[in-house]
Each structure stands twice: as C-alpha cells, then as structure tokens.
Amino acid sequence: MKFTVSSNDFYKQLQIAAGAISPNPVLPVLEDFLFEAAGNNLMIASTNLETSIITNLTVDCEEEGVIAVPAKILLETLKALPDQPIQFHANKENKSIEITSAYGKYKLAGDATDDFPQIPEDTDTNTLEMSSQALSNAISKTLFATSNDELRLAMTGVFFHVDYNKIIFVATDAHKLVKYTVGDISSEVSQSFIVPKKGLSLVKNALGDDDNVKVSFNQKNVFFSFGDTMVVCRLVDAKYPDFNAVIPVDNNNILQLARTEFQNSLRRIAIYSNKTTNQVILNATEGSLTISAQDLDFSNEATEQLSCQYDGEPITIGFNAKFLIEMLGILDSSDIKIRLSTPNKAGILLPDEEKTNEDILMLVMPVMMSH
Question: Which residues of the chain form CATH 3.10.150.10?
C-alpha cells in the first residue's frame, strides 16, 4: 500500500476514527486503525466491539492494499508534524510501515488485518434522514440523564422511538427523566431501540455542522452516516422501562420564572445544602418563590427569594439542586415552567415557549424532606 496525503487532513480523519479506540482493549488489534486503500480513497476504520467508526479520505494512491496500523504512534507522529504532504508506504509481506515527511523517515510495525473484527454492515435496515443540528441537539439534551448503573442496562443508553414523522428520544436514571421529540422527519416505520451513551457521544463529536445524517437501524445495530463518516453502534439489548407511566398528568400547580435567575440562585443556595442529598427546598406561593437549604451537620443555611408567577396551592417541596441546575442548563428558553402536584410526586420542567418541530419535557423526582 502506498499513498501520499496532507498530514493535516490525515490527522483530522484519524482523530474522528480514534474515538472508537479504547485505552486498554481486550484484543491488541483493537489498538489499531484498519486502512484500506482503493482507487484514490483511503478507508479508515476502528472499533471497540461496541462502537465502530468508518471514515474516508481522498489520497493520492499509488498502490492499493489493506493493513492494520497502531493508532497511538501514528497519531502522535502526525500531531508533531507541521502540515505537509507525507508518503505512507506499507509492505505487504512483512507488514512494516514507513512514513516519509520533509524531515525524514519514521518506521513502525503494522499488523495483519485477519484478526481485525468484522465491522457490521447496514443490511436489512430501516432508514430515516435528519439534520445534524437536530441529532446533535437531541444527544445533548438527553445524554446527561442516562444512568451509569450497569445493572439497569436499558437506562445506560438513550431510547429512540421512531414514529413515522417524528422521533422521541428518552433518557432516565430513575431520579430524572428527559423526553425530547423532534418532528419533521421522514421515515416509513414505527420502531424503537436503545443506543449506548458512549456511542452517542462519539456521534456527537464527529458530526459536522451542515451534514445531513442518514440513520439506519436493524435488530442489532444503528448506523449514523454523514459526510465521509459512518458511526455504527451496537444496540443495548434490553427492554426500556415504560416512561409514559411515570410522567404525571395531573400536575396542576404551575410555577413560572426566569430560567437563568433561578439557576444562579440554586447555585448559591446549593453551597449550603447537605453534600449527600444536595437538597434544596422550594416554597412556592402566589408571586414568590423561596429557595432554601441547610446542612445541619455544619450549621450552614441559606435562603433566597425570587419573584415568580405561581398558579396553584402553596407547596413546599425538596429537590436535588445538582439535577435542577443541570436541567436548567439544558433548557434554552428565557423563562421556564415547573408543574408540581404534591411534595412526594415528581415535578415537570418545561420551556415556557414551544419551538417548531421540537418538544422537551423533563421530570425530576423530589428529595424527601427530613423533619
């Protein structure tokens, strides 16, 4: 295999593919990129068995071929070179690799490609298209709410429910939940699957601003294709909890207030909360919201008052400040609504104005008040 390419372009594409290489893989060959040069295209692939990334780059190819290349040393070499044309030459017989730059030569040992895992192919798939902006938003707005608990496998990923012209994305860790709906999609199916969070964050990092994304899925994998790149994620094989059952429908006490003001207030009050529960107490009455926290172990306490619109019975309810702060950071409207029912039932956070083709609802469980 022999090709010439700009070191910067090469480095950029390799960095995308490097996302799927884990630091201490189960098999040594998983530390490698798989290169396949054909025509003037170099296909670069990497996998950690859960997520695979395939990306393509136009090169000036003199000799076609395939080889597995140690990722770390190649990335470090390119990173340390100023942009220039470099020549990459791999010997088919002894798998040795030689890289030539304006400065000199670098030799490293490649590996046979026979051991490189087969990357799933998008066969028997259903397909839909969406803008990269919409997908990127959906990932940002849901990923934070996924669980790290391997015993609740389904909750460690984001649930995708494709429903003809919309997709509903759901994430929950049993303390908080987010349901984000994107409209204006065209698909011919109604189907659901769970995508692992690690794969989704790789998708988000690799997405360009102006790509359209083709999302294809079958029973085992989901394929995100955009630009020159495809990210393949193995689906989480588990049943997602019935999230609609936990979203309360009768939360009729409605609190409306400025999002940033509320978030900043919570940040200050949280400093005085108990470090295990992060509990802050919200006390809502008509026209006023009192936010307070105390840490009895250290005799720390703090109280602030915000003006708000409140429509409902006066209520005192405790929440985890960290969760609220995080959720308020995900919403982007200037004002937000919190729908409450009783001190032991979940609260619902909503933006006060709906955007076209998108809909977001967040749920947060109360922290029980200690008396």
Answer: 2-109, 126-170+184-221+234-244, 247-364
Q: By the 8 A CB rule, do 350 and 358 touch?
A: no
pLDDT digits (tens, 9 = 90+) for 153-203: 999 999 999 999 999 999 999 999 999 999 988 888 999 999 999 999 999
Say if residues 77 and 88 touch (Cβ distance below 8 Å): no
CATH fold of 247-364 reads DNA Polymerase III; Chain A, domain 2 (3.10.150)
Helix (H, G, I), strand (E, B) or coil at 70: strand
Neighbouring-strand partners of residue 127: 216
In 252-288, which positions are buried (b, 16+ CB within 10 angstroms) versus exposed (e)? ebbbbbbbeebbebbeebbebbbeebbbbbbebeeee
Residues 99-129, buried b or exposed e (16+ Cβ, 10 A)? Answer: bebeeeeeeeebbebeebeebbebeeeeebe
Q: What are phi and psi of 267, to 5 degrees?
A: -60, -40
| Chain segment 145-158, per-residue pLDDT in tens | 999 999 999 999 99
Task: Find all residues with CB under 8 Å of 371, minimum gap 6, and list them.
Answer: none
Q: How far is it, in rounded angstroms, from Cα 178 to Cα 295? A: 29
For the domain spanning 2-109, the CATH number is 3.10.150.10
> Exposed e or buried b for every residue in 77-88, given b needs 16+ CB within 10 A?
bbeebeeeebeb
